[in-house]
Amino acid sequence: MVDVAILVSVGRHPASGRARRAPSDARALELAFGLPPGRREALHAGDPANPALRDYLGMGLERLTVLAMAEGRDPADALAARLRGLSLGIILTGNRAEGGEDSGALPYVVAQALGLAIVPDVVAIALDTDGRTAEVVQALARGQRRALRVELPFVATVHPAAPAARPSAFGPARRGRIEVVPVDAPPDAFLTACAARPWRARPKRLSVGAAGGGTGGALDRLRAATEVKAGQGRVLVGPSPDEAARAIWDYLQEQGMQPR
């Protein structure tokens, strides 16, 4: 038996902005369910009253532990302290959150604090029979995969190409328990120095030349559309019917207007 911890966060829908379960964290929880039976510890650092947390309980969790802290706090130290006392074999996280800094650095900070190896972009995990190592499949660029053998314990971030998470069921979501653990966390210095505002698409710059000259100007485009190049065509004086028909046929072919 291997004990597994899953770090989950509250996501944000890209269109509506409403809170939801983070897709990559839900995939990490799905990977945890696919491992052999053992203890499953789901941890979240933030507001325990957020309704999106129950979406994780609806996947089959009986309990979700929330390290309660105010918005804008740095959760790395609190999470590392909590994980240090659990004697875990595998710690799973998503590869990137959907709120806050969204830097994807939290798993690396936690792994460094715990002194553990970290395997990024995991899509599958299979425990070996000895219970001390695991076969890990890592996603690479252009759809490639790489198999690794990793000694336990370790931290793994889950790639978006991992198996999709199961739907959240209403009944288990209501029956699951949220255990609140108040913690002290320092302010996030980076977020404190930042100003948040809604994202908006910026207009694209058009590469045009100077007015009246240069490539791309209005005058150049008009000249290209109306200019007749010298040296094209030929003048026939008193041609025979066959010569005139041949000249007309050649012109139609040059212009791509021959009948079909």
Protein described:
With 260 residues, the protein is of the alpha/beta class. Strand 8 and strand 9 form a beta hairpin.
Low-confidence stretches: none
Number of H/I helices: 8
Separation of the first and last Cα atoms: 76 Å
Task: Give the radius of gyration.
Answer: 31 Å
Tell me the total number of β-strands. 11
State the assembly state of the protein chains.
single chain
Spatial arrangement of strands, main beta sheet? 9-8-7-10-6-1-4-5-11
Mean pLDDT: 87
Listing every helix as H and every strand as E from the N terminus to the C terminus, the arrangement reads: EEEHEHEHEHEEEEHEHHH
Q: Which shape, going by the Cα principal axes?
A: elongated
Main β-sheet description: 9 strands, mixed
Estimated helix fraction: 25-40%
Strand content: 15-25%
Look at the helices and sheets and give the structural class: alpha/beta
Task: Tell me briefly what this model is.
By secondary structure, the protein is of the alpha/beta class.
Topology:
Elements lengths: L3 E4 L2 E3 L6 E3 L1 H11 L6 E7 L7 H4 L5 E6 L7 H9 L5 E5 L11 H9 L2 E11 L5 E7 L5 E7 L2 E5 L11 H6 L1 E6 L6 H5 L24 H9 L14 H14 L6
Parallel strand pairs: 1-4, 1-6, 4-5, 5-11, 6-10, 7-10
Antiparallel strand pairs: 2-3, 7-8, 8-9
Helix pairs in contact: 3-4
